[in-house]
Amino acid sequence: MLEKETAIGGEYIVIKALENGVTIIGLTRGKDTRFHHSEKLDKGEVMVAQFTEHTSAMKIRGRATIFTKHGEIEAGI
């Protein structure tokens, strides 16, 4: 049970759009990596995203600041 709770309660990241049209794409876990969800943000919008048992990676297109427990990353600059 603890293993499943850890997977579901995975790490969070925060994405802040620095321009209109920033795209966030969630990628699946497993044998074949696939897109499973996408969102668009406009300038100033913020999204809190979580890695889960289904989401192993996120692709971010456009100018954005990504905040993680490991630090801050600038994308698209």
UniProtKB/TrEMBL annotation:
<comment type="subunit">
    <text>Oligomer of 11 identical subunits arranged in doughnut-like structure.</text>
</comment>
<dbReference type="GO" id="GO:0003723">
    <property type="term" value="F:RNA binding"/>
</dbReference>
<feature type="domain" description="Tryptophan RNA-binding attenuator protein">
    <location>
        <begin position="10"/>
        <end position="75"/>
    </location>
</feature>
<dbReference type="InterPro" id="IPR016031">
    <property type="entry name" value="Trp_RNA-bd_attenuator-like_dom"/>
</dbReference>
<keyword id="KW-0804">Transcription</keyword>
<dbReference type="InterPro" id="IPR023558">
    <property type="entry name" value="Trp_RNA-bd_attenuator_dom"/>
</dbReference>
<comment type="similarity">
    <text>Belongs to the MtrB family.</text>
</comment>
<dbReference type="GO" id="GO:0006355">
    <property type="term" value="P:regulation of DNA-templated transcription"/>
</dbReference>
<protein>
    <recommendedName>
        <fullName>Transcription attenuation protein MtrB</fullName>
    </recommendedName>
</protein>
<dbReference type="Pfam" id="PF02081">
    <property type="entry name" value="TrpBP"/>
</dbReference>
<keyword id="KW-0805">Transcription regulation</keyword>
<dbReference type="GO" id="GO:0006353">
    <property type="term" value="P:DNA-templated transcription termination"/>
</dbReference>
<dbReference type="InterPro" id="IPR000824">
    <property type="entry name" value="MtrB"/>
</dbReference>
<keyword id="KW-0694">RNA-binding</keyword>
